[in-house]
Hints:
Blueprint: H1 4-10, H2 14-26, E1 31-33, E2 37-45, E3 48-52, E4 58-60, E5 63-65, H3 75-85, E6 91-95, H4 104-124, E7 130-133, H5 137-140, H6 145-150, E8 152-153, E9 169-171, H7 181-186, E10 189-193, H8 205-212, E11 220-222, H9 237-250, H10 254-261, H11 264-275, H12 283-292, H13 302-308, H14 317-323
Parallel strand pairs: 6-7, 6-10, 7-8, 9-10, 9-11
Antiparallel strand pairs: 1-5, 2-3, 2-4
Helix pairs in contact: 1-2, 2-3, 4-9, 9-10, 12-14
Amino acid sequence: SAYKHIIKSCKSDSCCLLSKILDMLLDRRTYICAESAGGIPALEYHGVTLLYDVKRSITAEFSIKKRCSNAFNVSDRVRQILKSILPRSPLFVIDFLLFDLLSARERKLLVKQLLMLVDLMRRRLTTANIVLVNVPENLLKYLDPELKAFLVLYNNDTGYLQIDGAEPIILDPYALQSLTEADITASRAFILGGIVDEEFPRPYATAFVAELIESLTKVKSRSIMLRGNRVGVPDRINKVVSVLLDVMQQQKTIEEAVIENMSAKDKIVRLYEELKSLREPDEEYLCRLVEWLRLDFNALPNHIKKLLKTERNCKNAQKLIDNQVL
């Protein structure tokens, strides 16, 4: 069948499988045709039964195919049914209110992050879990027509109505309170600012957006920190969402998820931040930092390598981490 490969990836999770099928329908990678087919029941969810075509046992009214003639195409109808029965939790709301203030380069970087977020959601949830609000015309120019067709887009802030009662959290890197695992568990909606400050610093842009939108004035803000410090913590929207999903789906701690999603550059920046407190180079402490950040020895700057002298000097660093707090 057209969905054999995702049955295996979803590990018999009916909700997961239907979410994957919905995503394939949304961006027209597959179609539902009004053509009968036989098989054995594989999964069932809220009255929707999926058949696995190993052998013919019962007959289904519809088939999943890569192509479908207009006369038999019922994909739109099935999309609406799946949207109505599948949970859209968690929701990730991206606000693009300040998009027009970004430079041309920053806009392209933000669009790239959005495309990577779409890819992430296809793999781990569904694009129906993303809501884009305050989307300006200038952003739409950057998006492929097919992408615009299946994303949930609002050109104003009415999209925030979808998070009523979801205990939303605004993720702001400059918020005074740090995000905790308990916050992530309790919330079903997360709000991120569609902001990039590669060329011009905009430290309080997210807080500014929250003040402008009445429905957000009482929503709590949290920052993602790594041991009380935001230096090196990924700030790209796709990486921030990946951190949240790692905590939700893989039961990682925030610290584990942050380190997992840091780029090599992020880790080097954080390494330098941690070394600021040292008057003299301390090889043992440096080893512990390298192990803590899961840094590849070969990726270290040459002057750091010289301090460590040899990779072997750090082989026992993991034991030090287990027995001592950095």
